[in-house]
Specification:
Length: 230
């Protein structure tokens, strides 16, 4: 719907009215239509009768809500009482359940990153074994030889991190829109903390791979490697 479009509304008395959309607001839980009393009288040809009161509690503790509910429900004309805190708690419980799914996805992605980096580094070392052996023969220390390989891994990891962050923005938006329900909308904004955590985790896995490859580089047999035929 757009501003200026007309939609049909049905009130509790099953009366229909065609109303014009004057503005659109964003709501994250449930859906509402807002009409002024005068406009309601105009489109439904009847005077509006209010059957609900919305209030704000200064103290929204469970005890205060329970006491208020018991007092109000005894009054004539009040049939039910609801609190937004209950809706909020249900929503937070749903999000907590999703957090376990997100955690499993993070662990799986981390394991995949480790395996990919490990295999790429292993292949890189195997294909350049003569080059590495030559460097060691020329007098390079183990730390210098390792830094020679690590430098390439670090550059590739940083490039992959930047590309992944950009792709992650679009992936996150697609997933959030896909899982939305008619009466619930998720936020599409990403906090800076999310970017930082992603970068740090990726770099940590890269460091683990470099550490695991250090001993392989250290144990390269210089004579045997130089004897190998390319």
């Amino acid at each position: 719907m757009k501003v200026g479009n007309k939609i049909k509304l049905i009130n509790n008395d099953k009366n229909e009215a065609l109303v014009e959309v004057a503005g659109i607001t964003e709501n994250y839980l449930f859906n509402y239509v807002y009409l002024s009393p005068s406009y309601y009288d105009e489109v439904f040809k009847t005077k509006v009768e209010f059957n609900e009161v919305v209030g704000v509690l200064k103290n929204a503790s469970r005890e205060v809500e329970d006491n208020l509910s018991r007092k109000l429900i005894k009054k004539e004309g009040i049939s039910s009482i609801g609190f937004n805190t209950a809706i909020k708690e249900n929503f937070e419980e749903t999000i907590r359940s999703l957090n376990y799914v997100v955690l499993v996805m993070i662990i799986s992605a981390g394991a995949l990153a480790f395996v990919v980096l490990y295999n790429l580094t292993n292949v890189n070392i195997s294909e350049r074994i003569r080059e590495i052996a030559t460097i060691k023969v020329l007098g390079f220390y183990d730390e210098e030889v390792s830094a020679y390989i690590y430098r390439e891994n670090t550059i590739l990891t940083l490039i992959g991190t930047l590309v992944g962050l950009i792709m992650g923005i679009f992936s996150h938006r697609y997933i959030m829109i896909t899982v939305e329900m008619e009466n619930m909308m998720f936020g599409l904004k990403l906090n800076l903390k999310s970017y930082l955590i992603s970068i740090v985790l990726t770099l940590i896995f890269a460091v683990f791979v470099n550490f695991a490859m250090y001993y392989k580089l250290k144990n390269v047999e210089m004579v045997e490697s130089l004897k190998s035929i390319e």
